[in-house]
Amino acid sequence: MMEFDHVLRIIGEFGSYQKRLYILVNLAIIPAAFQMLMNIFIAREPQWSCSGLNSTQTCPTEGQPCETIRYTSSYTSIASEWNLICGDAYKVELSQSIFMIGALVGGLVLGMFADKYGRRPSWCISYILMVLGGVATAFSPSLNILYISRLVAGIGTGGALLSGFVLVTELIGPSYRGITGALSSCFFTFGQMLLPAFAYFLQDWRKLSFILSLVGVIFTFFIRLQRVLNAAARVVCLIPKFDHITPVLIGLHWLPVRYRVIFKILLLVYKALHANAPPYISDLLTPKHIGCYSLRSNEQYLLIVPKTMRKTFGDRAFAKAGPFLWNELSADIREASTVETFKSRLKTFLFKKAFYL
Protein backbone atom coordinates (compact mmCIF):
# COMPACT_ATOMS: atom_id res chain seq x y z
CA MET A 1 0.00 0.00 0.00
CA MET A 2 2.89 2.35 0.71
CA GLU A 3 4.17 1.91 -2.85
CA PHE A 4 0.74 2.75 -4.27
CA ASP A 5 0.56 5.79 -2.01
CA HIS A 6 3.82 6.95 -3.57
CA VAL A 7 2.22 6.68 -7.01
CA LEU A 8 -0.73 8.78 -5.83
CA ARG A 9 1.65 11.47 -4.64
CA ILE A 10 3.08 11.61 -8.16
CA ILE A 11 -0.14 11.65 -10.19
CA GLY A 12 -2.22 13.58 -7.65
CA GLU A 13 -3.70 12.72 -4.25
CA PHE A 14 -7.16 14.25 -4.61
CA GLY A 15 -7.69 15.39 -8.17
CA SER A 16 -10.87 16.00 -10.13
CA TYR A 17 -11.39 12.31 -10.96
CA GLN A 18 -10.98 11.25 -7.35
CA LYS A 19 -13.39 13.95 -6.19
CA ARG A 20 -16.06 12.91 -8.67
CA LEU A 21 -15.62 9.25 -7.78
CA TYR A 22 -15.77 10.08 -4.08
CA ILE A 23 -19.05 11.97 -4.42
CA LEU A 24 -20.67 9.41 -6.73
CA VAL A 25 -19.88 6.33 -4.67
CA ASN A 26 -20.78 8.03 -1.41
CA LEU A 27 -24.11 9.15 -2.84
CA ALA A 28 -24.88 5.45 -3.24
CA ILE A 29 -24.53 5.10 0.53
CA ILE A 30 -27.82 6.98 0.94
CA PRO A 31 -29.95 4.12 -0.56
CA ALA A 32 -27.88 1.70 1.53
CA ALA A 33 -28.88 3.66 4.64
CA PHE A 34 -32.50 3.37 3.53
CA GLN A 35 -32.24 -0.41 3.30
CA MET A 36 -30.39 -0.70 6.59
CA LEU A 37 -33.00 1.21 8.61
CA MET A 38 -36.14 0.66 6.54
CA ASN A 39 -37.35 -2.08 8.88
CA ILE A 40 -38.07 0.54 11.55
CA PHE A 41 -40.99 1.80 9.48
CA ILE A 42 -42.12 -1.19 7.42
CA ALA A 43 -42.22 -3.45 10.49
CA ARG A 44 -43.63 -1.10 13.13
CA GLU A 45 -46.56 -2.35 15.18
CA PRO A 46 -49.78 -0.47 14.40
CA GLN A 47 -52.60 0.32 16.81
CA TRP A 48 -55.04 -2.56 16.95
CA SER A 49 -57.99 -3.85 18.89
CA CYS A 50 -59.50 -7.28 19.29
CA SER A 51 -63.24 -7.83 19.13
CA GLY A 52 -64.49 -9.38 22.33
CA LEU A 53 -61.94 -7.59 24.51
CA ASN A 54 -62.58 -4.26 26.18
CA SER A 55 -59.05 -2.81 25.93
CA THR A 56 -56.83 -2.21 22.92
CA GLN A 57 -53.38 -3.71 22.40
CA THR A 58 -54.36 -6.59 24.70
CA CYS A 59 -53.49 -10.07 23.54
CA PRO A 60 -56.26 -12.68 23.81
CA THR A 61 -56.06 -15.57 26.26
CA GLU A 62 -57.60 -19.02 26.28
CA GLY A 63 -60.63 -17.75 28.15
CA GLN A 64 -60.98 -14.64 26.02
CA PRO A 65 -60.61 -15.57 22.36
CA CYS A 66 -60.22 -12.92 19.67
CA GLU A 67 -62.69 -13.22 16.84
CA THR A 68 -61.31 -10.50 14.56
CA ILE A 69 -58.42 -8.04 14.75
CA ARG A 70 -59.09 -4.47 13.69
CA TYR A 71 -56.21 -2.10 12.94
CA THR A 72 -56.87 1.56 13.67
CA SER A 73 -53.56 3.15 12.59
CA SER A 74 -53.36 5.18 9.41
CA TYR A 75 -50.28 3.30 8.23
CA THR A 76 -49.70 -0.32 7.27
CA SER A 77 -46.77 -2.61 7.97
CA ILE A 78 -45.79 -6.23 7.69
CA ALA A 79 -47.28 -6.67 11.17
CA SER A 80 -50.73 -5.62 9.95
CA GLU A 81 -50.27 -7.44 6.64
CA TRP A 82 -49.78 -10.85 8.25
CA ASN A 83 -51.15 -10.22 11.78
CA LEU A 84 -47.76 -10.44 13.46
CA ILE A 85 -48.87 -9.52 16.96
CA CYS A 86 -48.87 -11.16 20.36
CA GLY A 87 -47.41 -14.65 19.94
CA ASP A 88 -46.18 -13.91 16.40
CA ALA A 89 -44.62 -10.54 17.23
CA TYR A 90 -41.12 -12.02 17.16
CA LYS A 91 -41.47 -12.60 13.42
CA VAL A 92 -41.39 -8.84 12.88
CA GLU A 93 -37.96 -8.45 14.44
CA LEU A 94 -36.82 -11.62 12.71
CA SER A 95 -36.87 -9.79 9.37
CA GLN A 96 -34.28 -7.29 10.61
CA SER A 97 -32.16 -10.08 12.09
CA ILE A 98 -32.17 -11.86 8.73
CA PHE A 99 -31.17 -8.61 7.03
CA MET A 100 -28.20 -8.16 9.38
CA ILE A 101 -27.13 -11.77 8.81
CA GLY A 102 -27.16 -11.01 5.10
CA ALA A 103 -25.07 -7.88 5.69
CA LEU A 104 -22.53 -10.00 7.58
CA VAL A 105 -22.38 -12.57 4.78
CA GLY A 106 -22.19 -9.87 2.12
CA GLY A 107 -19.34 -8.10 3.85
CA LEU A 108 -17.33 -11.32 4.09
CA VAL A 109 -18.07 -12.92 0.72
CA LEU A 110 -18.17 -9.81 -1.44
CA GLY A 111 -15.19 -8.40 0.42
CA MET A 112 -13.10 -11.42 -0.59
CA PHE A 113 -14.55 -11.13 -4.10
CA ALA A 114 -13.36 -7.51 -4.21
CA ASP A 115 -9.84 -8.52 -3.21
CA LYS A 116 -9.67 -11.05 -6.03
CA TYR A 117 -11.60 -9.42 -8.87
CA GLY A 118 -11.54 -5.73 -8.02
CA ARG A 119 -13.51 -3.19 -6.00
CA ARG A 120 -15.67 -1.95 -8.84
CA PRO A 121 -17.14 -5.35 -9.91
CA SER A 122 -17.82 -6.17 -6.28
CA TRP A 123 -19.49 -2.82 -5.67
CA CYS A 124 -21.66 -3.12 -8.79
CA ILE A 125 -22.80 -6.65 -7.88
CA SER A 126 -23.52 -5.56 -4.31
CA TYR A 127 -25.53 -2.57 -5.44
CA ILE A 128 -27.61 -4.64 -7.86
CA LEU A 129 -28.37 -7.19 -5.13
CA MET A 130 -29.34 -4.42 -2.75
CA VAL A 131 -31.76 -2.83 -5.22
CA LEU A 132 -33.27 -6.15 -6.32
CA GLY A 133 -33.74 -7.24 -2.71
CA GLY A 134 -35.44 -3.96 -1.86
CA VAL A 135 -37.81 -4.14 -4.83
CA ALA A 136 -38.60 -7.79 -4.09
CA THR A 137 -39.45 -6.79 -0.52
CA ALA A 138 -42.17 -4.46 -1.78
CA PHE A 139 -43.78 -7.22 -3.85
CA SER A 140 -43.40 -10.10 -1.37
CA PRO A 141 -46.57 -12.25 -1.47
CA SER A 142 -45.75 -14.08 1.75
CA LEU A 143 -43.68 -13.69 4.88
CA ASN A 144 -41.14 -16.30 3.79
CA ILE A 145 -40.54 -14.48 0.51
CA LEU A 146 -40.10 -11.30 2.52
CA TYR A 147 -37.40 -12.96 4.61
CA ILE A 148 -35.56 -14.09 1.48
CA SER A 149 -35.83 -10.61 -0.02
CA ARG A 150 -34.44 -9.00 3.11
CA LEU A 151 -31.59 -11.51 3.12
CA VAL A 152 -30.66 -10.59 -0.47
CA ALA A 153 -30.94 -6.89 0.32
CA GLY A 154 -28.73 -7.40 3.37
CA ILE A 155 -26.06 -9.20 1.35
CA GLY A 156 -26.02 -6.38 -1.18
CA THR A 157 -26.01 -3.64 1.45
CA GLY A 158 -23.13 -5.19 3.38
CA GLY A 159 -21.06 -5.60 0.24
CA ALA A 160 -21.92 -2.14 -1.08
CA LEU A 161 -20.95 -0.35 2.12
CA LEU A 162 -17.64 -2.21 2.40
CA SER A 163 -16.62 -2.17 -1.27
CA GLY A 164 -17.72 1.42 -1.77
CA PHE A 165 -15.74 2.69 1.21
CA VAL A 166 -12.58 0.88 0.14
CA LEU A 167 -13.05 1.90 -3.50
CA VAL A 168 -13.01 5.61 -2.77
CA THR A 169 -10.50 5.73 0.07
CA GLU A 170 -7.75 3.64 -1.49
CA LEU A 171 -7.69 5.86 -4.59
CA ILE A 172 -7.22 8.98 -2.48
CA GLY A 173 -3.76 10.04 -1.36
CA PRO A 174 -2.71 9.52 2.26
CA SER A 175 -2.84 13.25 3.00
CA TYR A 176 -6.61 13.32 2.38
CA ARG A 177 -7.57 9.73 3.20
CA GLY A 178 -8.33 10.29 6.87
CA ILE A 179 -10.68 13.23 6.49
CA THR A 180 -12.45 11.84 3.41
CA GLY A 181 -12.95 8.49 5.12
CA ALA A 182 -14.51 10.20 8.11
CA LEU A 183 -16.75 12.37 5.93
CA SER A 184 -18.11 9.29 4.16
CA SER A 185 -20.21 8.56 7.23
CA CYS A 186 -22.00 11.89 6.70
CA PHE A 187 -23.70 10.47 3.60
CA PHE A 188 -25.05 7.56 5.65
CA THR A 189 -26.29 10.02 8.27
CA PHE A 190 -27.94 12.09 5.57
CA GLY A 191 -29.78 8.97 4.42
CA GLN A 192 -30.97 8.42 7.99
CA MET A 193 -32.32 11.97 8.06
CA LEU A 194 -34.20 11.54 4.78
CA LEU A 195 -35.80 8.21 5.70
CA PRO A 196 -38.40 9.60 8.17
CA ALA A 197 -39.53 12.12 5.54
CA PHE A 198 -40.24 9.31 3.08
CA ALA A 199 -42.01 7.32 5.80
CA TYR A 200 -44.17 10.31 6.72
CA PHE A 201 -45.57 10.72 3.22
CA LEU A 202 -45.69 7.01 2.34
CA GLN A 203 -47.88 5.33 4.93
CA ASP A 204 -48.17 2.04 3.04
CA TRP A 205 -45.20 -0.21 3.73
CA ARG A 206 -45.10 -1.67 0.21
CA LYS A 207 -45.03 1.76 -1.41
CA LEU A 208 -42.37 2.90 1.04
CA SER A 209 -40.16 -0.10 0.33
CA PHE A 210 -40.59 0.28 -3.42
CA ILE A 211 -39.85 4.02 -3.51
CA LEU A 212 -36.80 3.69 -1.27
CA SER A 213 -35.45 0.98 -3.56
CA LEU A 214 -36.38 3.01 -6.62
CA VAL A 215 -34.02 5.74 -5.41
CA GLY A 216 -31.20 3.26 -5.91
CA VAL A 217 -32.49 2.31 -9.37
CA ILE A 218 -32.54 5.95 -10.44
CA PHE A 219 -29.04 6.42 -9.10
CA THR A 220 -27.66 3.66 -11.34
CA PHE A 221 -28.52 5.75 -14.41
CA PHE A 222 -26.28 8.56 -13.20
CA ILE A 223 -23.30 6.47 -12.21
CA ARG A 224 -21.25 7.35 -15.29
CA LEU A 225 -18.62 9.93 -14.57
CA GLN A 226 -19.12 11.53 -17.96
CA ARG A 227 -22.61 12.58 -16.94
CA VAL A 228 -21.16 14.30 -13.90
CA LEU A 229 -18.61 16.08 -16.07
CA ASN A 230 -21.36 17.20 -18.45
CA ALA A 231 -23.46 18.49 -15.56
CA ALA A 232 -20.48 20.41 -14.17
CA ALA A 233 -19.92 22.02 -17.58
CA ARG A 234 -23.57 23.10 -17.73
CA VAL A 235 -23.31 24.68 -14.29
CA VAL A 236 -20.09 26.52 -15.12
CA CYS A 237 -21.42 27.93 -18.39
CA LEU A 238 -25.10 28.23 -17.34
CA ILE A 239 -26.19 26.05 -20.25
CA PRO A 240 -29.78 24.70 -20.34
CA LYS A 241 -30.24 21.01 -19.69
CA PHE A 242 -31.21 19.96 -23.22
CA ASP A 243 -28.57 21.95 -25.13
CA HIS A 244 -25.72 20.05 -26.76
CA ILE A 245 -22.80 19.64 -24.38
CA THR A 246 -20.01 18.95 -26.89
CA PRO A 247 -19.48 22.61 -27.90
CA VAL A 248 -19.38 23.53 -24.22
CA LEU A 249 -16.69 20.95 -23.44
CA ILE A 250 -14.69 22.15 -26.43
CA GLY A 251 -14.98 25.75 -25.26
CA LEU A 252 -13.83 24.81 -21.75
CA HIS A 253 -11.08 22.60 -23.21
CA TRP A 254 -12.17 19.74 -20.95
CA LEU A 255 -11.21 16.22 -21.89
CA PRO A 256 -13.92 13.54 -21.65
CA VAL A 257 -13.46 11.14 -18.74
CA ARG A 258 -12.19 8.31 -20.95
CA TYR A 259 -9.44 10.46 -22.42
CA ARG A 260 -8.68 11.94 -19.03
CA VAL A 261 -7.87 8.44 -17.80
CA ILE A 262 -5.66 7.88 -20.85
CA PHE A 263 -3.91 11.17 -20.09
CA LYS A 264 -3.10 10.01 -16.54
CA ILE A 265 -1.79 6.64 -17.75
CA LEU A 266 0.49 8.17 -20.38
CA LEU A 267 1.76 10.79 -17.95
CA LEU A 268 2.79 8.03 -15.57
CA VAL A 269 4.51 6.18 -18.44
CA TYR A 270 6.46 9.31 -19.36
CA LYS A 271 7.58 9.83 -15.77
CA ALA A 272 8.57 6.17 -15.46
CA LEU A 273 10.71 6.35 -18.61
CA HIS A 274 12.45 9.46 -17.31
CA ALA A 275 13.22 8.05 -13.84
CA ASN A 276 10.55 10.13 -12.10
CA ALA A 277 8.46 7.16 -10.94
CA PRO A 278 9.05 4.35 -8.43
CA PRO A 279 11.12 1.37 -9.65
CA TYR A 280 8.20 -1.04 -9.43
CA ILE A 281 6.39 1.12 -12.02
CA SER A 282 9.42 1.45 -14.27
CA ASP A 283 10.00 -2.31 -14.16
CA LEU A 284 6.63 -2.84 -15.84
CA LEU A 285 7.83 -1.04 -18.98
CA THR A 286 10.29 -2.65 -21.39
CA PRO A 287 11.71 -0.72 -24.37
CA LYS A 288 11.79 -2.51 -27.69
CA HIS A 289 15.12 -4.20 -28.42
CA ILE A 290 17.32 -2.24 -30.76
CA GLY A 291 18.52 -4.66 -33.41
CA CYS A 292 21.66 -4.62 -35.47
CA TYR A 293 19.86 -3.08 -38.42
CA SER A 294 19.40 0.65 -38.73
CA LEU A 295 15.63 0.91 -38.63
CA ARG A 296 13.60 4.03 -38.11
CA SER A 297 11.58 2.32 -35.35
CA ASN A 298 14.76 1.98 -33.28
CA GLU A 299 14.73 5.72 -32.62
CA GLN A 300 11.05 6.12 -31.74
CA TYR A 301 11.21 5.04 -28.07
CA LEU A 302 8.63 2.31 -28.48
CA LEU A 303 7.72 -0.15 -25.73
CA ILE A 304 7.02 -3.87 -25.79
CA VAL A 305 3.32 -4.64 -25.36
CA PRO A 306 3.00 -7.89 -23.37
CA LYS A 307 0.41 -10.50 -24.21
CA THR A 308 -2.45 -11.10 -21.79
CA MET A 309 -4.80 -14.00 -21.24
CA ARG A 310 -7.91 -11.94 -20.52
CA LYS A 311 -9.12 -9.01 -22.52
CA THR A 312 -11.28 -7.57 -19.74
CA PHE A 313 -8.81 -7.58 -16.85
CA GLY A 314 -5.44 -8.21 -18.50
CA ASP A 315 -5.71 -5.45 -21.10
CA ARG A 316 -6.62 -2.94 -18.40
CA ALA A 317 -3.45 -3.60 -16.42
CA PHE A 318 -0.87 -0.83 -16.52
CA ALA A 319 1.77 -3.22 -17.89
CA LYS A 320 -0.40 -3.72 -21.01
CA ALA A 321 -2.37 -0.49 -21.33
CA GLY A 322 0.61 1.79 -20.73
CA PRO A 323 2.86 0.50 -23.56
CA PHE A 324 -0.09 0.07 -25.93
CA LEU A 325 -1.21 3.68 -25.53
CA TRP A 326 2.38 4.94 -25.58
CA ASN A 327 3.14 3.33 -28.93
CA GLU A 328 0.11 5.06 -30.46
CA LEU A 329 1.56 8.49 -29.74
CA SER A 330 3.46 10.42 -32.37
CA ALA A 331 7.22 10.74 -32.05
CA ASP A 332 7.16 14.44 -31.20
CA ILE A 333 5.00 13.73 -28.14
CA ARG A 334 7.12 10.81 -26.92
CA GLU A 335 10.32 12.81 -27.38
CA ALA A 336 9.16 15.82 -25.35
CA SER A 337 12.03 17.17 -23.26
CA THR A 338 10.06 18.23 -20.17
CA VAL A 339 6.96 17.08 -18.34
CA GLU A 340 5.11 20.31 -19.05
CA THR A 341 5.85 20.06 -22.76
CA PHE A 342 4.69 16.45 -22.79
CA LYS A 343 1.46 17.31 -20.96
CA SER A 344 0.71 20.18 -23.31
CA ARG A 345 1.30 18.14 -26.47
CA LEU A 346 -0.52 15.11 -25.09
CA LYS A 347 -3.60 17.07 -24.08
CA THR A 348 -3.75 18.72 -27.50
CA PHE A 349 -3.45 15.32 -29.18
CA LEU A 350 -6.16 13.73 -27.02
CA PHE A 351 -8.40 16.77 -27.33
CA LYS A 352 -8.33 16.60 -31.13
CA LYS A 353 -8.88 12.86 -31.04
CA ALA A 354 -11.81 13.09 -28.62
CA PHE A 355 -13.69 15.76 -30.56
CA TYR A 356 -12.54 14.82 -34.08
CA LEU A 357 -10.85 18.19 -34.65
TrEMBL record:
InterPro entries: MFS (IPR011701), MFS_dom (IPR020846), MFS_trans_sf (IPR036259), Sugar_transporter_CS (IPR005829)
Tagged with keyword Membrane: yes
Recorded topology in the membrane: Multi-pass membrane protein
Entries under Pfam families matching the protein: MFS_1
PROSITE patterns cross-referenced by the UniProt entry: MFS, SUGAR_TRANSPORT_1, SUGAR_TRANSPORT_2
Keywords: Membrane, Transmembrane, Transmembrane helix
Record localization: Membrane
CC terms in the record's Gene Ontology section: membrane
A single MF term (Gene Ontology): transmembrane transporter activity
Residues spanning the signal sequence: none
Major location category of this protein: membrane
Entry protein name: Solute carrier family 22 member 15-like
High-level lineage: Eukaryota, Metazoa, Cnidaria, Anthozoa, Octocorallia
